[in-house]
Write a structure and sequence with these properties.
globular
Length: about 250
């Protein structure tokens, strides 16, 4: 499960020196069913904290807290209920990926569309991104529609953090895909000018035996620049480490 969580973060890249709240509706997410997830994000320079709650609008339970520390090269997942945390090195390549990577031939496509609309009083442009990973026996197709805005305070910090995350992905090879193709995807993503205030993601996975489809739609509910204490990005006192599971 920890690998799936990290991959979700990489595909829904989180950004800059700001605080924002995002609401995500999921359909088909493993173990969750149809749910509403709320992400409260705090980002400062080279670090990010995300507090995740799952449930309906009347009642939400805190599921976990995730902290990325690019300066330390680690990714922490905190369990507030048990006061435990898992630490994963960002330099460690993910093994046993969802798709067998021995014969992977990814295809990437990024399009800027003509539509525009206003979200939180920010003018946004529409983009379409698709990733098709085919290993023969297994296939994963990811499609993403994003409404990107840039004319708001904190955008420069957002872009800087995004570039750092993409650079780390490229440097460490977090996913076992041909490095040249990953560099090409990174370059094309970096050319997208903006921050996604709304997005839809559709993930289809298929092998010889099963077909799975996961859908999610996300919208930014709040976006602001605020002073953030460094303590926000540390493991709280009283939390104990647990062993990183070898399997999902």
């Amino acid at each position: 499960m920890h690998r799936i969580i990290l991959l979700v973060f990489l595909f829904s890249i989180i950004y800059g020196d700001v605080m924002y709240e995002m609401e995500t509706k999921t359909d088909g997410m493993m173990g969750l069913g149809d749910e509403v997830m709320t992400f409260r994000n705090f980002i400062k320079f080279d670090r990010m904290r995300t507090e995740v709650k799952i449930g309906n609008s009347e009642s939400k339970d805190e599921a976990f807290i995730a902290i990325i520390r690019l300066d330390k090269g680690v990714f922490w997942i905190l369990n507030p209920e048990n006061k435990e945390y898992i630490e994963m090195p960002l330099s460690e390549k993910l093994e046993n990926n969802i798709i067998d990577s021995s014969n992977v031939t990814p295809e990437f496509k990024i399009e800027k569309l003509e539509e525009t609309k206003e979200i939180l009083k920010i003018k946004c442009e529409k983009y379409y991104v698709s990733v098709d990973i085919n290993s023969g026996a297994e296939r994963m197709e990811i499609t993403q529609t994003m409404w990107m805005g840039k004319d708001f305070p904190g955008y420069d910090e957002i872009k800087e953090f995004n570039d750092k995350v993409l650079g780390r992905v490229n440097e460490t090879g977090l996913v076992d895909i041909d490095n040249k193709l990953l560099k090409d995807l990174q370059k094309r993503i970096s050319e997208i000018d903006g921050f996604p205030l709304e997005m839809e993601i559709n993930v289809k996975m298929e092998d010889n035996y099963t077909k799975t489809e996961l859908k999610s739609s996300s919208v930014i509910k709040k976006l602001t620049t605020v002073p953030i204490s460094d303590r926000v990005f540390e493991i709280p006192e009283g939390y104990n480490p647990v062993k990183t599971p070898n399997t999902d």
